[in-house]
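Input/output pair, single chain:
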Amino acid sequence: MQKALFDLVFSFAPFIFIAFVWLVSCLKVVNEYERLVVFTLGKVNKDPKGPGLVFVFRPFQTSVRISLRTVVLDVPSQDIITRDNVSLKVSAVVYFKVLDAKQAILGVENYHYATSQIAQTTLRSILGEVTLDELLADREKLSLRLREIIDSSTEPWGIQVSAVELKSVDLPEQIQRAMGKQAEAEREKRAKVIAAEGELLASQQLLEAANTLSQNPAAMQMRYLQTLTEIAVEKNSTIVFPLPIELMKVFERLGEKS
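Output:
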């Protein structure tokens, strides 16, 4: 009896092993940041499954694993011709994530590749509408505009674009030299304007000082004495005697009379 039972179990052992392997293959472990889109006989289930342990009834059911984490997409350098006919290379970074796992599978064949192509074509078209000065000065506004356009294009796929940042702008060497000369000319212009403003302020201060001293002749004498005191502090051997201007006028009158 025991031998017959053992033979029976041994004869069903391959089937038990196959059933165990099938059961293990039907079990899927879905992480917290993932969802499992399940198809039953080719029809998608209503809601994605996960996270946790998920049973997929193979071969009648198939599944696709989708990550919900933010993806950092590196947009390679694109050849851009700006509105003022300047050729340059611009690269960018796109941050996006999947909001609707089911729509990301049903709406597009490969959502990662499709988002990359949308980002590249949008980058070329939008930056081609602006000048070089606008590209260098308004990068934040351009990044916001790129994000809105790319996000609206990928929204039917269940994808949300959170940010688009221009990473680098490679200018031709001749443009860099021209911009360097322009910056140098601007610095020289500001230096000359500042020097002229300083001369104007100094002349105004000197005019006010002359008007103040002219109101009292003794003030001029006090200024002479103060200057002499300042020179004496340096311990110089030169002695300066202030000569009143009125004395020179006396000599001029005597010369006219003679």
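The chain has a mean pLDDT of 83. The chain has eight helices and eight strands.
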